[in-house]
């Protein structure tokens, strides 16, 4: 089923069966992500092209290919590359696809990964394209829920920057395949785009909107926090108007369900207080680790490793 996908650009390209294949494989690969020796992709080379800052995505992909026995080449800082000389993304992709077996691309422009796939002779994995999509983040988020809770028919709240947050855009589409109920929590200026909400309703998903975390805390199984992304605002005044809209503290969890898990794609700024880290609900650091076996699974699926 997964073999029909040559690139990983958007969760819209995935069926539920394809997602389940990745999650099942990630679970099989998790012991290797924790250090068990593996030579599954020992002859493969992964190129990391990040036009925007990244810690978890860049390092977890690097860890994933190396845990599988492969190796990587890194684009490094944009300023130190030929981009600073005016080289186009298309030309960069043409060149790098001759060096490596797959390309991981992060770019500030929405649609850049889709365009790059048109010029690449090897698989392109979208590691975030502006306010567009971040499919492997969604896959690791789903894997986290599967490992720490359950995926079927849960109640989940997406909180924070739902307008510009590519993470929640991809995540919402994927969640719609699992019959969940979704609460959207954001300031009015940062509501989920209408076309995404319409798509979710068309898929039979129940959506409720509010601007208060307290309204949903006792009703959900998963709380998915996101930061307000300063870099997505054209004007600083617009950012300052919504910055700090949400701050989750441990004292707010008195009404939470016992099985509630709290997730965050990280980095966090001040939207989750450090006091939450010690609670049984905190799951965001586990979530970050789960990026390694999940991305290992994606690489194996794309590059043909034998499990």
Automatic annotation (TrEMBL):
Q: In which pathway does it act?
A: Pyrimidine metabolism; UMP biosynthesis via de novo pathway; (S)-dihydroorotate from bicarbonate: step 2/3
Q: What is this protein called?
A: Aspartate carbamoyltransferase
| Annotated family | Belongs to the aspartate/ornithine carbamoyltransferase superfamily. ATCase family.
Which organism is the protein's source? Candidatus Argoarchaeum ethanivorans
A single Pfam family it belongs to is OTCace_N
This protein's GO CC annotations: cytosol
Per UniProt, carbamoyl phosphate binds at 56-57, 106, 134, 137, 266-267
The UniProt record gives the binding positions of L-aspartate as 85, 166, 227
User: Might you give the EC number(s) for this enzyme?
Assistant: 2.1.3.2
SUPFAM superfamilies found in the cross-reference section:
Aspartate/ornithine carbamoyltransferase
GO terms (molecular function) for this protein are: amino acid binding; aspartate carbamoyltransferase activity
Q: Where is the signal peptide?
A: none
Q: Which gene encodes it?
A: pyrB
Q: Which NCBIfam families does the entry mention?
A: asp_carb_tr (TIGR00670), PRK00856.1 (NF002032)
């Amino acid at each position: 089923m997964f073999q029909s996908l040559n690139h990983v650009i958007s969760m819209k390209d995935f069926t539920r069966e394809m997602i389940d294949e990745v999650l099942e494989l990630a679970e099989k690969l998790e012991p290797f992500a924790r250090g068990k020796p593996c030579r599954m992709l020992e002859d493969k080379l992964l190129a990391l092209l990040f036009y925007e800052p990244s810690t978890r995505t860049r390092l977890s992909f690097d860890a994933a290919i190396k845990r599988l026995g492969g190796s990587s080449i890194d684009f490094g800082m944009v300023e130190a590359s030929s981009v600073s000389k005016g080289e186009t993304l298309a030309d960069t992709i043409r060149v790098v696809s001759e060096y490596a077996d797959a390309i991981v691309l992060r770019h500030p422009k929405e649609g850049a990964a889709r365009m790059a796939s048109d010029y690449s002779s090897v698989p392109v994995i979208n590691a975030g394209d502006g306010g567009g999509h971040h499919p492997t983040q969604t896959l690791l988020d789903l894997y986290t829920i599967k490992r720490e809770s359950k995926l079927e028919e849960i109640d989940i709240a997406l909180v924070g920057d739902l307008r510009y947050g590519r993470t929640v855009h991809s995540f919402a589409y994927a969640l719609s395949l699992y019959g969940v109920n979704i609460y959207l929590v954001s300031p009015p200026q940062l509501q989920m785009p209408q076309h995404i909400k319409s798509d979710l309703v068309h898929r039979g998903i129940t959506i409720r909107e509010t601007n208060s975390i307290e309204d949903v805390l006792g009703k959900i199984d998963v709380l998915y926090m996101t930061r307000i992304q300063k870099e997505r605002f054209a004007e600083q005044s617009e950012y300052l108007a919504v910055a700090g809209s949400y701050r989750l503290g441990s004292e707010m969890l008195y009404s939470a369900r016992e099985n509630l898990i709290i997730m965050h794609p990280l980095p966090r700024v001040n939207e989750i207080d450090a006091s939450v880290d010690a609670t049984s609900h905190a799951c965001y650091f586990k979530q970050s680790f789960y990026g390694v076996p999940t991305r290992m699974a994606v690489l194996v699926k794309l590059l043909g490793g034998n499990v």
